[in-house]
Amino acid sequence: MATSEYIRKNTGAGKQIVEALPSLVVPDNRISGPAFAPKLLLMLSDVLVISLTFAFVLVLKVRFLPGYGEFHSLSLLKAPVYYAFFGWFLLSLLFVCRRYGLYNLTRPFSGTHELRLVVQATLTAGLLLCGGLYLAHWNIASRTVVVLLICTSAFSLSVWRSGLRIARYRNFEKGVGTRNVVVLGNNYLSHALGQHIASNYRLGYRFLGHIAPGRLHTDEHTVVTDVLGTLDRLHQLTRLHFIDEVVIAQALPSEEVIGLLEQARELGIDVRTISGLYSDLATNSSIEYLGVYPVTSLHRTRSKFFSTVIKRIFDILFSTLALVIAAPLMVIVALAVRLDSPGPIFYISERVGKRGRVFPCFKFRTMVKDAEKKKKELVALNERDGILFKISNDPRITRVGRFLRKYSLDELPQFFNVLRGEMSIVGPRPPIASEVAQYELEHFRRLEVTPGLTGLWQVQARQDSSFAKYIELDTAYVENWSFWLDLKILMRTALVVIRGTGT
Question: Cβ–Cβ contacts within 10 Å for residue 238, how many?
């Protein structure tokens, strides 16, 4: 039964549901909201491309095309007309692109269709520019500049958008930047939607499987086989599989949907539904497209897009600067490791990163060559409780290795991991697979963010042997992360390194 029918037939329940809507359903605000930040970034990139194109057109006109004298004294102060009509052209182009849906994150059209829309938007903006010049009687504006601006803008935007699409598809193919999605339902529509998402990686989604409703409905047949669990296990499934979004593809009682929205708000996941199923719950939401399927949003989490972008830019700049400054020191350390004991200079271990992705973690070798084999003999001497392993005066550590650990110099090669995007400067330390295999359900929260070189545990409880404290601090970082928290941790890390409290 659809939501609208249920509300009409159950007046009392309907009133409670409607009263609960404002706090549960997040409307799709076209001006702001979780999708606003990436839209703005895409818009700003277009502004940059068109601005560079305009500068290229002016240089081309001044240096190589007839009418040189007209532009001989061109400057910011002496050519206000050209900058005025460029501003009008730029605003017109942004407006038309937005009307054509070129700034929507989920664009249902193909790459060829997008290029056609880009060219069409540029020509439309060009017509608006010509109309504006005619109405303003700006006869001094060069027709050559106007024509060149329109043509080169269409070309440069097409090349730019094609490059972005190709880069995005390559990342999606590698599993980078994708969102984990599950489909709620066990009918034919659910099956078709799941197959559509799974077979088209270019949508930017990783299809995990289906979630079955709490009970099966007698008027529908179960046709899906890849069922992760039932709706009442959503909390566990979200933690285990790092679910980002639930798409409802089956009509359910409104109480179940309201309960799902409450859980989604607590778990920080998005909820969308096939358009038309719950029109009363999505009255303020616009129609989007998941591939070829129209959907509407019932709940969206608060976006941290800008903070994440700033964090990544900071990671790249900081790690690059650190590698440049520390290059001579790293050469000395490499020679010392090589001369101190037989074995490779670097120690590469498989670590579990964000959302369970395994990556090679680089370090300077601080132990003897067969350290992993000797670890089994030292298990009884472990001074840490639970999963962690640590012993004082570990006989496997070399002389140079002990010094490197004391001042955390063995971790300098991990700046390469930061540049590769596998690690961040600040975040929970990346665990090994044997540790993750022993995790309890809530421990998986620390894998929801990119692991880091340093974190809360390193600066607050590095000598604490309690695994519970280790998890507590990492979970606190995940739940309260901000760029300013990263800066505080970095400053405290500097003090820890200077004091040489590492082991």
Answer: 23
**What pLDDT, in 10s, does the model give residues 81-135?**
677 778 888 899 999 988 888 887 666 667 788 889 999 999 998 888 888 777 7
Give which of 378, 368, 348 is closest to 360, Cα–Cα. Answer: 348
Task: Please write the tens of the pLDDT for every residue from 303-324.
Answer: 677 778 888 899 999 999 999 9
* Assigned superfamily of 178-302: NAD(P)-binding Rossmann-like Domain (3.40.50.720)
CA 396, CA 247: separation in Å to the nearest integer?
Answer: 51
118 vs 380: CA distance, rounded Å: 67
Q: What are the structural domain ranges in the chain?
A: 36-174, 178-302, 306-499
4: its two tokens? 């609208």
At position 486, the amino acid (one-letter code) is D
Burial (Cβ within 10 Å: 0-12, 13-18, ≥19) of residue 43 = middle
167 C-beta neighbours (distance < 10 Å), count: 11
Phi, psi of 305 (to 5 degrees): -60, -50
- pTM value is 0.71
Joined together, the tokens standing for residue 228 give 């992760």
DSSP H helices in 341-432: 371-375, 399-406, 414-419
